[in-house]
Amino acid sequence: DGGITQSPKYLFRKEGQNVTLSCEQNLNHDAMYWYRQDPGQGLRLIYYSQIVNDFQKGDIAEGYSVSREKKESFPLTVTSAQKNPTAFYLCASSIGLSGWAQETQYFGPGTRLLVL
Amino acid sequence: AQSVTQPDIHITVSEGASLELRCNYSYGATPYLFWYVQSPGQGLQLLLKYFSGDTLVQGIKGFEAEFKRSQSSFNLRKPSVHWSDAAEYFCAVGAGYSSASKIIFGSGTRLSIRP
Q1: Cβ distance of B43 and A42 shorter than 8 Å
Q2: Backbone angles phi, psi at B100, to 5 degrees
């Protein structure tokens, strides 16, 4: 079955530590996204990528970094500069035509990041 | 810039009752409108979307939504809810093209079902 996988389901971060969240898709989509979800706040875009080796900052990119070396993979690193990382992180993908705002996004099951 | 408002944080309805979840948007032109559903601890799944044409849109799981330009609304409806509909529902507004693309999600409405 085609879909998006995220790992791990839960992740614990110690202060000063960088952690990396995995996102893999086998939908052959060009565009991939990372969102942060906090209670009562909906989804906020962290980074997005429309093509391999290219990505753009979203609304809340500070303290995060990404890479897009392969079409199917879009890992997110939460750096020590992110002072409030506790949240639910969602990865998504879409076909990736130039008008991506009109595309259906397909979401992974999410990773919950907690700070020790 | 576009924005989206879901005025109801939490709604409880009885099983078998009808449902309407409200969504209001702000955008200068006709935006792309979406409703997504999220079960607890899971990702989001698309229920339906509107781009143009018929203002009444049918989606999965028996949901429908109506685009009303005069009211800047895109409310989600279901004639008879089932216990399995308990979830969080997000309205989203997309606009722009290419590097100017932007999608904004509402803050969500949590739906509880009373047996």
Answers
A1: no
A2: -95, 10
